[in-house]
Amino acid sequence: MNGTHAMLSHFPIGFWALATLMILVGSFMTGRLADISRAALLPVLVLSLLGALAAIAIGFIVWPMAANLASPLARNHILMAFWSLGIYSAITVLVWKAGDTAFDGARRWVLVILALTGSLMFASAGTLGGHLTGSTTAFSQVLSLMGWEVYTTFYSPLWVIAVMVLIGIALGVLGIMSQRRIG
Ligand code: HEM
């Protein structure tokens, strides 16, 4: 069953990477490739969510909760998997609701910022998964530069919390401003 998680987890990682690439191409390029990227984004996102749900479900079925929660490595792996799922779910809803206008004007920046943030999350989830199976990658050195030691850290560094608070305030202000503009 361990192998089933390893196999299934490649679906969300592959589709999320593809969706991120399509968002960048659809946002910053013109021509046929950009048109195809914008048109095909929604199905790719839906497949990524189905793959993620399958990988998460099998993760919880295969390993006992006590084992999952015993080490910072596994806890962070699960946390990053849920952050990735949350961010790409938000992108999916935005693209689904906005339809053809999802890439219009400044809207594309919301998709780009969310997709780049989501890539960091799923890259971290995959990297930690690799550490769980004994296959380390150079990406953990990038995490280490940010103060995250993959085997021991289970907290958000203070600067991360500060950035999250600032992003929250900025989004609140943007929301109020755009509501006033509409009203
Ligand atoms: C989107 C969700 C997830 C992704 C993309 C993901 C990704 C991965 C990857 C790439 C590996 C390494 C597989 C290998 O190279 O053999 C891995 C291993 C692992 N994952 Fe996940 N994972 C996800 C969710 C979860 C969840 C929800 C749990 C637990 C409840 C979990 C527990 C584990 C464990 C325990 C391992 C180590 C497996 C072993 O030792 O054979 N994962 N994961």
From TrEMBL:
Source organism of the structure: Vreelandella andesensis
Domain of life according to the entry: Bacteria
Entry protein name: Heme ABC transporter permease
Keywords on record: Membrane, Transmembrane, Transmembrane helix
Membrane spanning stretches: 6-28, 40-66, 78-97, 109-134, 154-177
